[in-house]
Please model this.
Amino acid sequence: MAKVFDWLSGRSKQRNGVPPLLLVGIGNPGEKYEGTRHNVGFMLIDLLAERANIRLNDKRKDVVLGQGSINNRSVVLAQPRTFVNKSGIAA
Model:
């Protein structure tokens, strides 16, 4: 996890006007997949959101979004509401 924050910190030195970084954590919806290797992407987004105090509260048809900043870099965190093989729809 520290490497992700370090990488974002280095990227934050870009000049203003840079669009937010989109981080998409893919996984499979439903209780059947909770806590399994299929949802490591969801778990990573949850952890990033928790540590950066970003609320994943923008619930759309195919994706749940949260916007904020990590190490002074604007980010959008996304969790598709589709199965892994359909994640492109949400992205």
